Amino acid sequence: MTKSINESYGKFATTSRLISCLIIENLATAYYYSCPSSEQQQLIGLCLVLRTGRDSRDHNNNSNKEQDAMKNLHDLLAIVPLRGIPELDTTATPLALKQGTIQCPKIELLDPWDMLAPHIYGPSTANNIPSSENSVYNQVKRTLDTMGLLEQGQSIVDNYDAVQLWNQFASDSGVSETEDSKQIAAEVGNSIIHQTYTYDHPKPLPTLESPPYQWEQLIFEGHPYHPMHKLRISVPPLPSIEPGQVNWDTPQLRLLAIPRRSIKVRGDFEQRATPLIDAMLKPTATDGNVQEMRKKYTDYVFIPVHEVQVPNIEAKFKDVIIFPKENNVTAHCLTSIRTVAIPDILKDLTVKLCIGIKVTSAMRIISVYSTYFGPGFSTNVVPRLTYDRSILSVERDLASAIYDHENPDIAKHCSCMLREAVEYPSNPDDHNKDAFVVTGALVEKIQKPDTDDTLVTHVWKLDTEEKKAAFLDRYIELALKAFIPPCRENGLAFEAHGQNTVARFDQKTGELKGFVIRDFGGISIHRDTLKKSCGVDVDVLPNSSIIAESMDLVYNRLYHSLFHTHLQRLIRVLGMHHNARGWEMVRHHFNKLVPKDDPMYAYFMEQKKVSGKCLISMKLDGLYRDDIFRPFPNVILTQKRI
């Protein structure tokens, strides 16, 4: 594809996610107009996103404010062509146009997959009409005219992007001068730039024989709903990071030596890290004698650091020794970027590191909460949890190290975690090999933006509806068997989204065998339920975000990560959402696991609305560890569209 087309798709990827969040978080109001079936088949309707805070809303206190606000094109924040019908609020008063002859129902949830890429339009003056019009542009313009929304001198402009949209929304909402709002504008702009770069630099497609880290590095668009899905913003003293400037796939790990008096260690960190540290010491050891070098630093603890993070170490930790560049090893990054594998050196483990850059929600460091909680939870709680070990493997945080600083916001810049990794075994079974695929990669496109073909349909050759249905049914069955029992029995919800969950397939047949779950930073635990079921308490620092005050909050976590983010994306890319076939599978397998008199059943299967995580609202309030939830349509209850 040409660079300009990739840029259009790059804008669309971020802008579509922003619009989706504004609608579902109830920050912006949107309505659906269904195009007549005789019109262009590809375009089935329009999403009309209204501007907020318009003076015309209050002109007539007796009229419907939303209707009163909708007078012409310039009362719209965006116009989005659709290829799929969104989730509609049948209880809300529809938007009436042309003296009530046109009724547009309110949209509750609009998924980016249902938007007609790469077209998002904004209002424009006649002299700002793009020179190159296309069939979608012309169709949308004619539809707006039919709706009575085009007045003399008004038109629409294509390639309306997230920065323009956010700035207009922020101005209308009266938040344009806040630092959080300005940050959002900068971050969606950065996401567009990095998304476009990814489109410009496609990677070779994988096979079932590909190493796990190759799958991890095929994240083409990232989080299916987060508008900062490709964000890469550094924070001083790190220099700015431009696309292509850092080799994220195979970074260099540098070596640090920290005085023992200045570091907190949990678990047998030094013993487990020995192969890695020896490999890093060897390049400058006399005659390769690593033990002689170790004797010089008996009062120090060695830890690895990501090469990008070195300026932060230099600026913040004056008693830390930074070894020369020669003392390095090359690692393979995983989906999160900050977690790496070095399978030739470090078996059965991966290494989670700090990087002082913002990716999606926040800076990618390791907090004092995580370094303290992970090893203790892994040792004392994980072995007691209720789950099928033949289906689910829980990768434990085995050991951690963090600089002992009175300010936790500084300490978190110099920390490290050693995590169990079943994907990189020390004794692999050559006769019964498994393929480990991070589940977020399954739903990624095949390294080009203008396609609906994803890695799951390509690699597993799912070229018929029945093949897709068979794959999906087994996937849903095993996913629910993996993650429902610890939630229902132990009051623990793993954060089972596409980045934390790895699927385990038979390498020869491609049949799904089970899942691997990792990263405990986002789990949710109801303490009393855990104590009663496992006979053990959870050891956390005060004010830990992991502790849930009620089981409903635990259900929130599972719903958002497993159902809303993980399964919904797979169901949609396999074409099983609008016909509800995928959700029928979910309900079927859920019913087999959870009795109807169980509180969990009532939460997931009887509520039309469930509490969903509000990504933009959290950004507006400057939150990361603390979540904001509001009622979202319960996609589990999705029914077939007529």
From TrEMBL:
<dbReference type="InterPro" id="IPR037455">
    <property type="entry name" value="LucA/IucC-like"/>
</dbReference>
<dbReference type="GO" id="GO:0019290">
    <property type="term" value="P:siderophore biosynthetic process"/>
</dbReference>
<dbReference type="InterPro" id="IPR022770">
    <property type="entry name" value="IucA/IucC-like_C"/>
</dbReference>
<dbReference type="Pfam" id="PF06276">
    <property type="entry name" value="FhuF"/>
</dbReference>
<feature type="domain" description="Aerobactin siderophore biosynthesis IucA/IucC-like C-terminal">
    <location>
        <begin position="470"/>
        <end position="616"/>
    </location>
</feature>
<dbReference type="InterPro" id="IPR007310">
    <property type="entry name" value="Aerobactin_biosyn_IucA/IucC_N"/>
</dbReference>
<dbReference type="Pfam" id="PF04183">
    <property type="entry name" value="IucA_IucC"/>
</dbReference>
<dbReference type="GO" id="GO:0016881">
    <property type="term" value="F:acid-amino acid ligase activity"/>
</dbReference>
<feature type="domain" description="Aerobactin siderophore biosynthesis IucA/IucC N-terminal">
    <location>
        <begin position="214"/>
        <end position="443"/>
    </location>
</feature>
<protein>
    <submittedName>
        <fullName>IucC family-domain-containing protein</fullName>
    </submittedName>
</protein>
